Amino acid sequence: MDRETYLKLRKESLNKISEVKDVIICKEITEELISEIWYRQEFDRRNLQTIDGKKIIILSPGEKTTGSIVDFINAKVNIDGKVYIGDVEIHKNRSDWFKHKHFQQKGYENIIFHVFYNYDTKKEIVLNKKIFEICLKDRI
Q1: Which of 2, 7, 54, 77 has the fewest CB atoms found within 10 Å of its own CB?
Q2: SS (H, E, C) 54-73
Q3: Which domain holds residue 93?
Q4: Positions of E strands within 14-118
């Protein structure tokens, strides 16, 4: 990410946050903010698990993309002792995967990880392989 884009995203994110007695209250969670939190790994990573209970260790959040289909490429995660390398897709809501019709689009073949804030649907994501998912809502 270039400096100008970073500063723009940072300013937009900071405008959505207010401090009250040393407590940070976020006025609005956006996909861009979640993406930045993922990139910086600024969430509680202790005892991290997928939504189906698999232990996660994030080795690398991946490289942020611009104008690409996926949000991050070449992420590296250890899930239950096995290392996976691939792409990451970020959403505000888990249901955005379906709203954006990613299951019908090309370019998602290398997705290994779906990161989201609101766990608003339990509908199963079906692709040609397993996609691991994590909800960040209680970790930010």
Answers
A1: 2
A2: CEEEEEECCEECCCCCCCEE
A3: 43-139
A4: 17-20, 23-26, 56-60, 63-64, 72-79, 82-93, 111-118
Single out the residue of 40, 66, 63 nearest to residue 110, CA to CA: 63
> Rounded to two decimals, what is the model's pTM?
0.77
Express each pLDDT in 16-33 by its tens digit: 654 444 445 556 899 999
pLDDT at 85 over 60: yes
Least confident of 74-78, 79-83, 107-111: 107-111
CA pair distance 89, 72, nearest whole angstrom? 7
For residue 90, being part of any structural domain is answered with: yes
Q: Which pLDDT score is estimated for 107?
A: 78
69 lies in a domain?
A: yes
